[in-house]
Structures are given as C-alpha cells and as structure tokens.
Amino acid sequence: VRRLSVTSVSVLRAIADGFEYGFDVIDRTGLPSGTVYPALSRLERDGYARSAWEDEQRAFREGRPARRYYRITAPGTRALDDALRYYRTLLPLGRRQEPS
Amino acid sequence: VTSCDHLLRLAAALAPHDIRGSWLREWRAEIAYAQRRQDDATLVVRCLGAFVHAAWLRWDRWRIEMLVQDLKYALRTLTRKPGFAAVTILTLAVGIGANAAIFSAVRAVVFRPLPFPQPGQIVQISSTKAQGPQYYGGAASPPDYTDWRTNSASFSEMAAISAGSIPWSGHGPAEQVPSANVTGGFFNVLGVAPMYGRAIGYEDDAMGAPDVVVVSHELWTRRLGSDPSVIGRTMMLDGITRRIVGIMPAGLSYPLGTELWIPLRFSSDVLATQRGAHYLDVIARLRPDVARDAAQAEMSTVVRQLAATYPRTNGNKGVAIFGLREAMVGNVRPALLVLLGAVGFVMLIVCVNVASLGLTRAVGRSRELAVRAALGAGRSRLINAMLVESVVLAAAGGVAGLLLANWAAQGLAALDSTLGIPMLDETRVDRAVLLFTALVSLSAALLFGTVPAWHAASRLDVVQRIREGAGTLTAGKERQRLRAGLIVLETALAVVLLVGAGLMMRSFLRMTGVDLGIDTARVQTFSVSLPETKYSTPESRALSVDTLLTRLSANPDVEAVGAVAGLPLTRFSHGYTTSTLDGRTLSDAEQDARTVQVRVVTPQYFQVLGIPVVRGRTFAEADRLGSATVAVVDERAAAVLWPQGDALGHRFELGTRLGQNGRRAGGEVIGIARPVHELGPAGPLRPTVYLAHAQFPVDFITVTMKARADEAALVEPARTVLADFDPDLPMFRVRSMEQLAAGAVAQPRLYFTLILLFAGAAMLLAAIGIYGVLMHAVSQRTREIGIRLALGASRHEVVTGVVCHAALLASAGLGLGVLFALGATRYVRSLLFQIQPTDAVTYVSVAAGLLLVAVIASYLPARRASCIDPATALRNE
Description:
The structure holds 2 protein chains of 2 kinds.
Chain A: H1 6-16, H2 22-29, H3 33-45, E1 49-53, H4 56-61, E2 68-72, H5 74-89
Antiparallel strand pairs in A: 1-2
Helix pairs in contact in A: 1-2, 1-3, 1-5, 2-3
Chain B: H1 2-12, H2 20-34, H3 40-80, H4 82-111, E1 122-129, H5 142-151, E2 155-169, E3 175-182, H6 186-190, E4 196-197, E5 212-215, H7 217-223, E6 234-237, E7 240-247, E8 260-263, H8 268-273, E9 281-286, H9 292-309, H10 311-314, E10 317-323, H11 324-329, H12 333-364, H13 366-374, H14 379-419, H15 431-458, H16 462-469, H17 477-513, E11 523-529, H18 538-553, E12 558-565, E13 575-581, E14 584-585, H19 588-593, E15 595-601, H20 605-609, E16 613-616, E17 630-634, H21 635-641, E18 651-654, E19 666-673, E20 688-692, E21 700-707, H22 715-725, E22 732-736, H23 737-744, H24 746-780, H25 782-790, H26 795-824, H27 840-857, H28 859-866, H29 870-875
C-alpha cells in the first residue's frame, strides 16, 4: 500500500478532526482549493473518505443550498495513523510529539 | 458571486460528463456558504481551483478507463491470435534474456562498485615504462614503493602487496592457502575493519615484530569452525608459527581469492639492494580532495626524481594510476563491452523483426482500425491502444526473458574458475539487472510498437482501408516498402554480427592451430612448495626433489616424471638480465637487451613435455651441486645471446642467484631446445633458458608426470607418495596439461561461442524476416500472380520473381551491413589473433552464406506462388 502524501495527510486529518466540508478543509489546512479538492476526490476514489450531501432541511433553514460533506472511513483512519507514525519518525529527535 | 458562477460554469465543461451536475452543485454550495464570511477576491481565487479539480477528475477518469479498456482490448486481440503472440513473446524473451544475462555479467565484472567504502578513492599505482602505452599491474620494487610513499602527498594511505600462496600444516591435512603479504596500511586503504581482533597495522611493518596472520571469513568458516576464540591461537604457515590476530568480515577477498594476510616487511638490506626487483603491487587511497589526475601528476614527478637518482634501475620507469576496479578487470573489459554491444545488436534485430511482424498484423487489422476510426476513435487513441498491446507483449517477453537470464547468469557464474575473468562468479540478477530488463523491455515496446501503430493510424482513409481489408485491393506500395526497409535493416544488423562472429571464429581457429611446442597429452601436474625452515640448504632441497621424483616414478602407470619451476601455460614469468657472456661483463644496455626467462627443471622434464632438444644434450645425473654449471637454451635465447654463430659450448651468467647463495645462475650451454609458447598460443615467444634443479635447487616446483594411459589416475597415488614423503607438504594446483591448454584459450572460446550464438540468432531472425515478407507479399499478390499466370506467364518466371525479390532484399541488407561492419569491427581488433578486421575471406563467406539463407527462406513462398491456380485466385475475388 502506498503511503499517503503530506497533502493527503493534512486533508484527511482535517476531515477526521471534524472539518468536513471542502472550504472548511481549505481554511483548516491553509492549502489552495486546487490542491484540496483533487486530494478529496483522490481520497474518496481510494476509499479513504466517503462523501454525502448534508440534510436539505438544515441548509434550507440557514438559507443556502445543501453542501457535500466528507467523512473518513476505517481504511482511511488506518492509513492516516500509519502515515502519521511514519512522518513522526522524520522529526528531529526531541521533537517527536503529536503535531498540533 | 456572479463572476464566480461564470468561472464555475466554465470549469464544469472540463469535468466528466456524468458527474458534472453534482460537481457544480458542490462548488456552488460552497461559494454560497462562504460568501458571507469571505471577501470576493478570495472567492474568485478559490474558484480558480475548480479548474484544477475538474481537469484532475477528467484526467483521472480517462487514465483509468482508457488503460483498462486498452488492456482488455490488447488481451482480447492477442488471445485471438495466439500464434502471433507466442512468436512475438518468444522472440522478445530470447532478445531480452540474452541482454539481461550479458548485462548481469558485465555489471558483476565491470560496473558493480567494489565492497569498500568510497571505492572510487582506491587506486592501483602501476610501475610502467616511461614511454609507450600505460598498462595495469606493473609491479614495483620495495625501495621504489617506500620512496613513493614518503614523497607523495596525494594519498591518505598507501600499501604494498605480494600475493601468492602458503602451505598450512599441523591442522588436519596440509593445505596450500591463497595468501597475501601486505604492509601496514593495507586494510586502511581498503577501509575495512576486522570482524574480530585487529587488522595488520603499521606496528607489524617493523623487522622483528611478532609473526601474526589475519584470516578471511571464508577460511574461518571453512577450516576454523567459525569460532571467535581462534584469535590468539597459532597456525603453522610455511614452517613458521604465526599467531591469529584478526578475522576479516565476509566478502573481503582482496587480492581476489586471498584467505590469509601476513605482514610484509622490508629489511634495510632489501631496501638498499633490491631497487631492481619488481614484485610488489601497490594500492593507495586518494585523499578526498585530490583528483586522480593531480595524483598522477604528483607521482610522475616522484618517479622522474627517482629516475634521475637511480638511472641504472629506474632510468626508463614511468607510473600510471588506475581505479582499483579498472586495474582488476581492465584486461577483460573490452571483450565484455564488445559482447554487450553484440547482444544489443541482437535486441535491435529482435525489435525490427517484431515490428515487421506487427506491421503484417496491422495490415490484417486495417479494416478493424478503420472501423474504429469511423466510429470516432482519434489517431492518438488508436496509437495508444496499439502501444498498450506492444507493452503487454514486451512485458510478457521481459518476464520470460528474465527467467532465461537468471538461468544464463547462473551458468556464467559457474564458469568462473577456468576462465580467469575476475568476479564473474558474482554474476546474478540483481535490482540493477531488473531495472535494465524493464528499460530494455519498455524501449523494445516503443521501438517495435511505434512503427506499426504510427503506420496503421497515419492514413485513415476509411473507405480504402475497408476495401483493402476485404481483399479487393492490393496493399499499398508504401507499406510494402516500409516492411522491405525493415528487413533490409535487420539483415544489415545481422551481417555485422555475422562478420564479427566470422572474424572471431577464424581468429580462434588460428589460435588453436598454433603448435605450442609441447605435447600436452597424458601429462598430469601438481605443485609443491618446500618450506624454507625445513628445507633450508640447497643440498636438502636437491635431494628431496630427487627422492620425491624417484618415488613417483615407481608407479608402473607412470612413463616419466619431471619437475619445473615455471610450468608453461600458467602465466609464470621470471625474466632476468644477462650479466656476462663467455666471461665478458656486458654494459647496462646490453644486459637489458638480453633479458631471458629462466626455468629450473629436472633432466626428465623435456621428455615428459615432449620439448625437443634439437642439438646437444639435456641435463644428466652428473650435473649436480658442485659440478660445473650447465644450461639448455631455447632457439630464441640462443639467437638473442649469440646472434652470430653457435650457442653450444658458450657460457653465460644472469643477474640473479635464484635465491641460491653462491653462484650466479647460468652456465655452459649444453643443448638447444625448441621454443615453447609458454603464455598460450596468442602470447609472444620469449627467449628462455633452462637450468638444472640439481644445480639451482629452488624451493617451489611443479611436478610433471607422463602417464602410460589416463593421467587423472596418477593423482591419488601421487598424493599418497607425497604424504608419505612429508605429511606437511600440501599438493596443490593439481591440473593436467590438457586442462591448462584448454584454459589458455578458454576466454577467446567463450567470447567466440557467445558471439557465434548471437550471430546465429541474428541470422535465423533475418531469415524469418525475409520469409515473412515474401510470404506476405505472395499472399497479397495472389490475385496479381493469378492474372499473370492466366495471361501466359510461366510458373518458372513466378518462382524466379519471388527468389529475386529475396535476393534483392538480402543484397541490399548485405551492402548496408558491410558498411556497418567495416565501421564496427575495429572495436573487436583487440580480440583478434592474426586476423585483420577487414579479412576478405570472412566478408565473402558471410555474403555467400547470407544470400544462400535468403534463397532458402524464399523457397516456401516461391512454391506457394507457383502453385496458385489462376481460376481459384480470380474466383475468390
């Protein structure tokens, strides 16, 4: 299995942290939209994330169209853990902590 | 927001059709959500990302779909024509396999880095002639080595090596172990640390330092039970007790084959007197900041200064610095690269052949391709599909080729010992070979796939193609020409290989036709080294050898027994200058001009090896220590020493005592012998003098036994006799003269066999190519031939037409090939013996052979053409 790229890790991590909509992921990661959206599509294609439309009623109440949200899947969680563990080994000694 | 929507609608055009709606909905929802929080500029920038997203989706979809579709399509079309697929894969497998195998050998010998840290910094310093070509491995003398080391600054370490072998006794059966005497810096030059204990260091250089030895991992596992506690124990080596101080890690075997390293020491006497004794190999490690050229310049200065100080010994000396790998394999490198080139030619021929096959198939498929084009497939789509097909074929060929290569690499690795190609035994299919194979396969796919693909897709005249495919039109002249061109090219490439093989065959035949000057039949040999500690006096050595030979000759199967120091065909070289002739001391120049090879022999040696003594006599029992010294010289030496007149009865002395204190080597000439090709058929004949072992009893001899019947049957009885005589004397280098004679031509034989194999494959492929073109041409022209026959052409004329077609193709290929060959064969010049690269006999034979093959290849197509029934041919329309 191929290890996730840094971009994919950032995006998947954002989703896992509850930033489930495309633009929220962009805000969270600081990555450009032209990077985040292909990454989302790729993660979905590879089975690490799945997408669905939010509840129409709720969107209607807020006076806007329904948005598509993304959720991390079980293989996605595993791949994310695996990738984070790996990237952590690349940190300089003494700084091997959970990235904030 | 409006401008954002414009942008999104534009971008949506890029997104795949079926998801365009939901894609647009998602982006619009995000913009609507974000517009309350973010300013317009940010939103517009984010919308630009939508273009990237849409394009990515389109590309991703296309990539997967097309690839899967093309793969499926390729597999389907290939399984529909299994014959074509099988022939193609097999052809490719042979080409790729041969390439991968030869590459793996070349990599093992020439390219794979030596197993030392920073191997590029390790160099060999070769003592050469001041003028003339630079050569590898020119040995240095102890004083020269010491001066080099003291006066140079380019190297962090320098070491001298004297490689050989040493008898090991007192630990099971006595054994002769490959060994190297090395100075203190040796292991620092290599950068290798011991696995246990210590290496040989500078403290071991001092005269009187303890006698120590360092053991290789191989010997440690083979004979010492892999026991680390052997450190501190002793070994009895050549009669001297040495303490084991270190065990080297696995894989370290330098000089190649070495199993023991022993300190090399120079006494002040040696350093004062032996400036002319060249027997040391010198290696060094360059300082990291020094380039090899700079080191060469510095060493040249050092050597010039030495030449000025010691003109007698160093006057014409030069120096050359080579990378260690280059120095180790320099002699076989050109041959291996020629082989790699030859096998590359085979691959090109394979590609051309497969391309030609593919072209034939593309013709058969023109209708299908035209239909696909008519249904909307673009040119790039069609080319893509056909290339995927090529890649599938090449991948299958690559896998099959790799299996072949693996098998061949094992065979090549097993050849090692008889050939003298260093490190050939390390030939294996490693990651680099895998990468090479993948590259070759991919390039092959592109080479043989592009031509038919491009051609098939280039002229998509749908109507014409559909009609052509249905057989109502003869195929385009252009396509015929393209195929013919490919065949001409293929034939030309085959000619180059055939000429190369022909030259090497003639050269090899010349080589094996050389009379070596000895009779190798039924002669068994083995070597014995008498330890100096035990056989310290000349008398004891003379007596021991005499006794040993007498006991060996007691075997009734033995016809005669002799012994020699310096057996022919073993690359033995002991050259000495002549110092006096008939009592007159020669000048320095005269001495140098009369350098002769010295062989110390027992009386029966000439009889055993069948060396005719044409005048005078050989040695007799009466020629022994204390009696007047005598010598037999060969005709070359006689001509060199006494150019005018007869050598018999004259006296000479050499500049050596052969380690026998007292008399200088030499004596009165009592016999003239025929010269012997000591260095093999291709080596030069060197002036040689024979001295009697009884008068100059050297400690290293090779026993030669002539058998009445089977020489191999003499080995075991001889081993018993030797063990009986002295159990501490190992019997080593047990070889028959036939084996040595075969070994002397083993390398040329291997190169010639491989090239012949490649050339044979090339010829076969060319014949198949010509056959294929003709067969196809005949089947395409069935209608035309039918009409001709109907109009009164004779069958003979039809057959002649086809055969002429074949001859025309072959002649064109021949013409082109001869031009190629004239250019290419100069690279094999160094591999040829008494044959010029432009050898007319070879060229004419190749031309005649190729034309003959072309005519044979045209037989079946010609027969088919002559059997065409005009009525049937026309009815089929």
